[in-house]
Specification:
The chain has 469 residues and is α+β, with helices and mostly antiparallel strands. It has two domains: 267 residues, Orthogonal Bundle (2-methylcitrate dehydratase PrpD), CATH 1.10.4100.10; 122 residues, 2-methylcitrate dehydratase PrpD (60s Ribosomal Protein L30, Chain: A). 51% of the residues lie in helices and 8% in strands. It is built from 21 helices and eight strands. The strands form three sheets. The chain has a four-stranded mixed beta sheet. Strands 1-2 form a two-stranded antiparallel ribbon. The protein has a two-stranded antiparallel sheet with strand order 3-4. Strand 1 and strand 2 form a beta hairpin. Helix 2 runs antiparallel to helix 20, helix 9 packs antiparallel against helix 11 and helix 19 packs across helix 20. The longest helix is centred in the first third of the chain and has 21 residues. The termini are far apart.
Length: 469
């Protein structure tokens, strides 16, 4: 990897250049595989939102928001209530991230659709008569910019930020501005407002608290506000990325590779490298889960194991390497514990939505296995790499079993098939909302042919309610 650089005056104007480049790309200029990926991101996220109906914190959030607002121009998908666009974006963004099942760009470490989709859905409903093509363009460019920001801000998580929240609001503001048909100057204002509103400490994930789930929701809310305020003619910062108190120097402490932001913009597409999650847990645990599943297939029984050692890169270790504590009774803590996720994969031969239910995360059999598990930092691994994991297990009879992997299921090297994504979509809507196959297939068909829709508000209309048949 190239050495990180400090921002200098040589990149003055980068924020404006980004907005000009985004505004210049029309739907007709999007390659077919980019359009397809944008639609699959939408499909996957709608399913995950449906699965989150009973997720911890969702009912309380919706009740609070509905107590403050009685009406609006945008839909909260889980309740079908109409609230203001920023509030609906908050509710839908929190739901999209509530199960940690949403897409991620592994190298950039951003969950994009939990921010971008709620943002563009809210703006599209408020503006009215936004075509499917317009929505796809905004979704594609928002996801692309989000990935590029994550690649430029390569150590965002290591510094202590939740990249999905901090960077998502910036990409979301541009996506919203495109739907509002802002010119490049006002897009720059939207980006400036977004940096003014940007936040997202990683402390919530380190402490295993539900506030972590709300980060993309707050980012979506702020992205909507940023675009509308700039559209109303209120000025925002002109150098939100490269300025003295801009993203690169303030939040990123100069640990940036700014050249990654616009290199071959519109020609090379980083949106194609987003991963669709096979497991509803922190992406930093997925290689570990893969090794656990391998050991299960080899017939290893938990009772045979004396000691487990899992070694991983620095940022992953800091994120998911803490000892597992079942007394916390925290779903988030379990999803951010490599020890718990490995124990479940090895024991059950699967990791799915049932893995993190309240009764599962306090299972004493699993807790006993995590007590025999040590997660350690591997100094030989690239500290910001997502995939590498090394496993060594010592069995009670003295045998030693070793394995390692860099594979991340669902990413570009091991993609999920479209049929698998459709099965995930149907399962999520059925588990969360009891939606019928007919209802889920109607929505899926609309998403997969969204470019033909004259009004993208059809997505909210077709989203199943809990009594959909």
């Amino acid at each position: 990897m190239d050495a990180p650089t400090k921002t200098t005056s040589k990149i003055d104007g980068l924020s404006a250049e980004l907005c000009t480049a985004a505004a210049a790309i029309r739907y007709e200029g999007l390659p077919d595989d980019v359009v397809r990926t944008a639609k699959l991101l939408i499909l996957d996220t709608l399913g995950i939102i449906g699965a989150a109906r009973d997720a911890p914190g969702m009912a309380a959030l919706h009740n609070r928001l509905s107590s403050w607002e009685r009406d609006g121009s945008a839909t909260t998908l889980l309740t079908k209530r109409r609230l203001s666009p920023p509030t609906a974006a908050l509710a839908n963004g929190a739901a999209a991230h509530a199960l940690d099942f949403d897409d991620i760009h592994d190298a950039a470490r951003v969950h994009t659709s939990s921010v971008i989709l709620p943002t563009v859905l809210a703006v599209a409903e408020d503006r009215g008569n936004v075509s499917g093509r317009e929505l796809i363009r905004a979704m594609a460019l928002g996801a692309e910019i989000d990935a590029r920001l994550g690649l430029a801000c390569f150590n965002c998580l290591g510094i202590g930020w939740h990249p999905s929240a901090l960077l998502g609001v910036l990409a979301g503001a541009i996506a919203a501005g495109l739907l509002l048909q802002l010119d490049s100057e006002r897009l720059l204002g939207a980006l400036g407002f977004a940096q003014h509103l940007a936040n997202g400490s990683a402390q919530s994930m380190l402490d295993g608290t539900l506030s972590k789930r709300f980060g993309p929701g707050f980012a979506a809310k702020s992205a909507v506000m940023a675009a509308y305020l700039s559209g109303d003619g209120i000025s925002g910062p002109r150098r939100p990325l490269e300025g003295q108190a801009g993203l690169f120097l303030l939040q990123q402490r100069g640990e940036v590779m700014p050249e990654r932001l616009l290199a071959d913009f519109g020609k090379r597409w980083d949106i194609l490298d987003y991963a669709f999650k096979a497991f509803p847990s922190c992406r930093c645990t997925h290689s570990t889960i893969d090794l656990g599943l391998q050991m299960h297939r080899r017939g290893v029984q938990p009772s045979e194991i004396a000691v487990i050692e899992i070694r991983m890169p620095e940022v992953n270790f800091k994120t998911v390497g803490q000892p597992y504590d079942p007394l916390l009774k925290s779903m988030v803590h379990a999803q951010f514990s490599a020890a718990y996720c490995f124990a479940r994969a090895l024991t059950d031969g699967r990791v799915d939505l049932t893995t993190f239910r309240p009764d599962a995360i306090v299972d004493q059999r699993i807790a006993a296995l995590t007590e025999r598990t040590q997660v350690a930092l591997d100094q030989d691994m690239d500290p910001i790499a997502m995939g590498p994991v090394r496993l060594q297990m010592t069995l009670r009879d003295g045998r030693v079993m070793s394995a390692e992997t860099t594979k991340l299921l669902g990413g570009p090297e091991a993609p999920l098939s479209e049929d698998t994504l459709l099965d995930k979509f149907r399962s999520c809507l059925n588990v969360g909302l009891g939606a019928s196959r007919a209802a889920t297939d109607r929505l899926a068909e609309t998403v997969l042919h969204l470019e033909a829709a004259p009004n993208s508000a059809v997505l909210a209309q077709l989203f199943p309610s809990s009594d959909t048949k």
